[in-house]
Amino acid sequence: MSLTPHLRCVVIGLALASAMTPVHAQKRTDTAAAELESKLVALEANPDYANAAAYERLQARHAVDALGSARQSQYEAAYYVADRRVQIAVAAADTAAMQQRIRDLDRERSELLLEASRRDAATARAEAERLRIEAQVRAEEAERLRMQSQSDADAMADVETALKDVAGAQAARLKAAKAREAELARQEAELLRGAPSKPPKGKK
Question: Which among 35, 72, 165, 198 is least buried, having the fewest CB atoms inside 10 angstroms?
Fold first, then answer.
């Protein structure tokens, strides 16, 4: 079937358009794909996301790779899927990293509480030991004072006994002296009574 001049012009125009369009479309496609690739590479290189959202990142990688090999007629749909997959991977990685951070903080908090509890227990044990030693020292001091008091009481009793002995000895000596004095006085009196009286002298 022969083409009319009008249809021939339309076909030629479409052919020219299709020949010219891929130049601009290919440039736009390469730029968009490069942007998604850059985002995905940055996500995969981030150490904070090393173990985060592995499945979502794998899906994003497949979508970006598919975008690079997509035909022009499928590009928009492929780009939409790849862009969404990359966004989902980033969001999932952020969420996973945040959850991991929360777990880390909870673990650190538990460790700090445990360490504080251990320090409190150690402080309590040290305080109890200090009080025990202080009580023991006080008990030993009280026993020493009691023994010293008992020793002082015993010494005082010995002194009092010695004083009583000295007083008793002095009293005995005094009594003996008085008895001796009385005996001497009695003997003297007897001598005086028994002595002959002198005759009176005569007158001359």
Answer: 198
